[in-house]
Amino acid sequence: MSLDYRVLQCAAEWFAVLQSDNVSDSDRQAWRRWLSDPEHARAWQGVEQISGRFEPLARDPFGAKASSLMQRRQPSRRQALKALSVVFGGGVLALASGAMPWRSWTADQRTAVGEVRDWQLPEGSHLWLNTDSAVDVAFDDQRRRLSLYRGELLLQASDERRPLSLRTAAGRVMTKGAARFSVLQRDGLTQLSVFGGSVEARPANGHARMALQGQQLSFDDRRFEEERPAQMGRQAWVRGVLLADNMRLDDFITELNRYRQGYLGCDPRIAGLRVVGAYPLADTERVLDVLASTLSLRVNRRLAWWVTLEPAQAEA
Question: With contact defined as beta carbons under 8 Å apart, do 137 and 166 qualify?
């Protein structure tokens, strides 16, 4: 979410207040005043969208009324999408933006949030699929084709005559020989990391570039970002491990959040702390407790699905 951290936290606090059994009329009036600010309304919408996966506001008449208040500020098309997003946890919003979620729902191979799986492909290649990911596999006599609709994969491509191509929302990557590489789709970009061999990357509306072993390329549908060294530790998720080598805490939390339901945030005051170690992805609660202990932080579990890391001595 591209919203101010403090505003988001305030929105989560209001959500907790309004869900309590002893919420008062004065609380509701204060919340309405707070919600009148457009930035506050956007933050509330973000919290509400996440809550729809766990505690649908339809169960709470006042919460449902809050949705109605917000929708009246939006054009009719967005009203319909907003209402549906509460039911489907935001999936319809992705549909409206052209992300074609129906393809990920019906993909050949899919993983849930927190799940990592692997498959041996018919011609000898090996495919790993990271958390909350979806891919189609289509091989014929001339070509080996994959389509990544969501998330991240790691592929150990076998060496044979048929080229292997992988389509993403931003373009395509292809290899004609043995190669080991990962592809991640996030924030409108396709990130290609090559750990062995060579892989060609081509934006949908741009020119191709070759990435060799040890290189990382990120691109949208038109252009490449600056080339970077591939992070070899990015492969560790296939073993159920999140590997941090002097990683910023906020970057670590962003990565860890991919393996959890709900919202996981980091207070900007501690964002620059450094994380080192190998952390088990199967138990993210334990990871948070370890971080709190080793970095002298506080885990604020404001709601079951809204958790933040904060300084041990929180400001009043």
Answer: no
Neighbours of 284 (CB within 10 A): 20
DSSP designation for 224 = B
pTM of the complete model = 0.74
Between CA 70 and CA 108 the distance in angstroms is 38
Q: How far apart are CA 288 and CA 316, in angstroms?
A: 23
Q: Which neighbouring-strand residues pair with 245?
A: 276
Give the other-Cβ count within 10 Å of 313's Cβ.
8
Residue 63 pLDDT:
44
Using 50 as the pLDDT threshold, list the residues of the chain that sit under it.
1, 56-100, 316
Say what the pLDDT of residue 180 is. Answer: 97
Q: Rounded CA gap, 263 and 282, in Å?
A: 17
Tokens 């080996």 -> residue: 144
195 backbone φψ class: left, alpha, beta (φ>0; ψ -120 to 50)? alpha
Which domains, and CATH codes, for the chain?
A: 5-96 (no CATH), 112-233 (2.60.120.1440), 240-311 (3.55.50.30)
Which residues, other chains included, contact 10 with Cβ-Cβ below 8 Å and sequence gap of 6+?
34, 40, 43
Cα 134 to Cα 152: distance, rounded to the nearest angstrom: 8
Q: How many CB atoms lie within 10 A of CB 223?
A: 11
Q: Mind listing the pLDDT tens digit for each residue in 218-252?
A: 999 999 999 999 999 889 999 999 999 999 999 99
Q: Name all contacts of 121-126 with Cβ < 8 Å and 24+ positions apart.
A: 123/158, 123/160, 123/162, 124/158, 124/160, 125/155, 125/156, 125/157, 125/158, 125/164, 126/155, 126/156
Phi then psi dihedrals of residue 181, to 5 deg: -155, 160
Looking at residue 22, its amino acid is N
- What Rg do the C-alpha atoms of the chain give, in angstroms? 22
Q: Using N-to-C axis directions, what is the helix angle for 25-35 and 38-51, rounded to 10°? A: 110
pLDDT of 95 reads 39
